[in-house]
Design goal:
Layout: E1 18-23, H1 28-31, E2 41-43, H2 68-73, E3 78-81, H3 90-102, E4 107-111, H4 123-135, E5 138-141, H5 144-154, E6 159-160, H6 169-175, E7 187-193, H7 202-214, E8 219-226, H8 227-230, H9 239-250, E9 255-259, H10 264-272, E10 276-278, H11 288-296, E11 299-303, H12 308-311, E12 315-317, H13 322-334, H14 343-365
Parallel strand pairs: 1-2, 1-3, 3-4, 4-5, 5-6, 7-8, 7-10, 8-9, 10-11, 11-12
Length: 366
């Protein structure tokens, strides 16, 4: 197994460099916790998955760093868990925490999800949180509402540090300079359908979205989806959804774009081409998609579940209340680029987010 050394390491303090096992390191959220240029916190790269007999395509899912054998052999100052334990049994997570504690290192957990969008039922995720939140030396989350829920459920006070940018800063600067569509021009509303159908309500929202967008001057509803979901024979093909979308597209009620998974560059261009993006989540907590839209000046229409509205300025709708979605779509037409953040604002925020994480690590090691 590839390690960074197995000799005991004296906890870092003062202004010395810190070594953090940040799980998973390659995720864009984790990458943007670092200062834009350099810094005194070194986040260990995700280990080679071949060491555990896995394909090289499995870069961080599930993360090698979550294995007690890796934790026991590697040298780090702080262990910081973010994502990657969706399918883990609570007892296995308890073994992870115990191994970190046996090493005498702080265990930090950032609560991104209080209700996991990948789980159709909440029991497993709740039991995972029941292990991680009480055991953490420090709990971090992204919004005040999530912090209040954490305190209510586990009597733990979470540190609130907002979500940093998702889109690269230079890409933000370039795409934010695109022409602004004035009222009366074309107004493009996007809905992205994914294989997480149990946690979304795309099919139920579509008739209301079609009507609401068609009522707008210049309104265009664009629906994007992956081939495996919308093409016959796809691994996750949803025949009812695919049939509805193709019929509506043939009738000219929407534009349908079926494709493979978009690269980051393609995704940023797609989001920047929209005036508004609709989040169809039935449940959830926070959203990186929402942050990417804010980076690109795309108005977000988000459900009232979770704490989406605390991440930034969005237009909210309530599931089961069709009129609320119609009102939100109309408001998006009037309020172009609602919630947009500039690259300068994101640079300042990223510097603050990085500094606050470093201060937290040093306080735990002091």
């Amino acid at each position: 197994m590839t390690t960074t050394g197995s000799r005991p390491r004296r906890p870092a303090s003062g202004t010395s460099d810190l070594c953090v096992a940040s799980v998973p390191c390659s995720h864009v959220y984790v990458q943007h916790l670092a200062p834009e240029h350099g810094g005194r916190v070194h986040r260990m790269p995700d280990p080679d998955p071949v060491a555990l007999g896995r394909s090289t395509q499995q870069k961080w899912w599930p993360p090698v760093m979550l294995h007690p054998a890796w934790i026991a052999q590697c040298t780090f100052d702080v262990f910081h868990l973010q994502f990657g334990f969706d399918s883990w049994r609570p007892e296995d997570l308890a073994a992870v925490v115990q191994t970190v504690q046996d090493r005498g290192r702080p265990f930090v957990y950032t609560v991104h999800d209080l209700r996991n969008r990948r789980h159709s039922e909440r029991a497993l995720h709740d039991s995972q949180l029941d292990v991680l939140v009480p055991a953490a030396d420090a709990v971090v989350t992204l919004t005040p509402g999530a912090a209040e829920e954490i305190e209510r459920r586990w009597s733990r006070q979470a540190i609130v540090i907002p979500h940093p940018h998702v889109v690269p800063l230079r890409t933000m600067e370039r795409l934010q300079r695109r022409p602004h569509n004035p009222p009366g021009g074309r107004f493009r509303v996007g809905l992205h359908v994914t294989s997480l159908l149990e946690s979304t309500a795309s099919l139920r929202l579509l008739p209301t979205l079609v009507r609401a967008v068609r009522e707008l001057p210049g309104g265009v509803l664009q629906v994007n989806g992956h081939r495996d979901l919308l093409e016959p024979g796809g691994a996750r093909c949803h025949l009812e959804l695919a049939r509805y979308l193709r019929d509506a597209a043939r009738a000219g009620r929407l534009e349908l774009r079926v494709h493979d998974v978009l690269s980051d560059t393609q995704l940023w261009r797609y989001l920047a081409s929209l005036d508004a993006s609709v989040l169809p989540d039935r449940f959830g907590t926070h959203s990186g998609w929402l942050e990417a839209c804010r980076d690109l000046g795309t108005t977000v229409i988000a459900p009232t579940c979770g704490y989406f509205a605390e991440q930034g300025q969005v237009l909210s709708y309530e599931h089961g209340v069709d009129e609320s979605l119609t009102v939100a779509v109309r408001a998006a037409w009037h309020h172009r680029r609602l919630g947009e953040v500039t690259a300068l604002e994101r640079r300042r925020q990223r510097a603050d987010v990085a500094a606050r994480h470093e201060l937290l690590y040093r306080a735990l090691l002091a």
